[in-house]
């Protein structure tokens, strides 16, 4: 079974500071990894995904994540936080099961940006 | 266009009411999903439709009844709900690849329906 663990349910950073949200995965096969963002009272929006190929993945809004197989990690980073980045972030891993695509979400990390 | 549209955005209903949630996508996706999300929790899968047929029912109570009238529409019919069913209900869709589904494909989510059961 595949799983993801997000370390830290709440992360606070100052505006302009580095954002680092941690995600570790467990998978017996090469994983497909995603980061989604959820703004208050909104659905989930895809930030970026890793499937194969380049291990450093760039996404929307200046976010990027690096797939590190040796560390089973897929941490999300952004060099400089903006107030608009305040949201809930979910790391996810997908698999096929029962003929459909199954998404396993982490428990989420709420990012607070302090002015 | 990567939009999944859900209506209504908000819904308040009593425990004896019957209501329906609607989800629509025009991306040609052949898999559609209903998720339930409680506050401060990740989404939990409820139902999966693939090629307009119900593939997965994650042990959801019968007071929730899904329907997929065509490849673009997905409904969730609600009847005799309980206050603990209050949550954000999210719809998602993903494409197939050659009549099958791939784990690497993206699920696109709607903005959700915020349901309150009184």
Question: Could you describe the 3D structure shown?
Answer:
Chain A has 115 residues and is mainly beta. Chain A contains no helices and eleven strands. Chain A has strands at 3-7, 10-14, 19-26, 32-38, 44-50, 56-58, 64-68, 73-78, 87-97, 100-105, 109-114. The mean pLDDT of chain A is 92. Helix content of chain B is 0%, strand content 54%. The model of chain B has no long low-confidence stretch (mean pLDDT 91). At the A-B interface, strand 4, strand 5, strand 9 and strand 10 of A face strand 5, strand 9 and strand 10 of B.
Short description:
By secondary structure, chain A is an all-beta fold. Chain A has no helices and eleven strands. With 118 residues, chain B is mostly beta strands.
Give the helix/strand layout:
The complex is a heterodimer of chains A (115) and B (118).
Chain A (H helix, E strand, L loop, with lengths): L2 E5 L2 E5 L4 E8 L5 E7 L5 E7 L5 E3 L5 E5 L4 E6 L8 E11 L2 E6 L3 E6 L1
Parallel strand pairs in A: 2-11
Antiparallel strand pairs in A: 1-3, 3-8, 4-5, 4-9, 6-7, 7-8, 9-10, 9-11
Chain B lengths: L3 E4 L2 E4 L4 E8 L5 E7 L6 E7 L2 E5 L6 E7 L2 E7 L7 E8 L13 E2 L3 E5 L1
Parallel strand pairs in B: 2-11
Antiparallel strand pairs in B: 1-3, 3-8, 4-5, 4-9, 5-6, 7-8, 9-10, 9-11
List its salient traits:
heterodimer; A: 115 residues; mainly beta; six-stranded mixed beta sheet; five-stranded antiparallel beta sheet; 11 strands; B: 118 residues; seven-stranded mixed beta sheet; 54% strand
Helix proportion range of chain A: under 10%
Whole-Å distance between the termini of chain A? 41 Å
Q: Approximately how much helix is present in the residues of chain B?
A: under 10%
By secondary-structure content and strand pairing, the structural class of chain A works out as: mainly beta
> If helices are DSSP runs of H or I spanning 4 or more residues, what is the number of helices of chain A?
0
Largest sheet of chain B: 7 strands, mixed
Beta-strand level of the residues of chain B, as a percent range? over 45%
Globular, elongated, flat, extended or rod-shaped: what is the shape of chain A? Answer: globular
Shape of chain B: globular
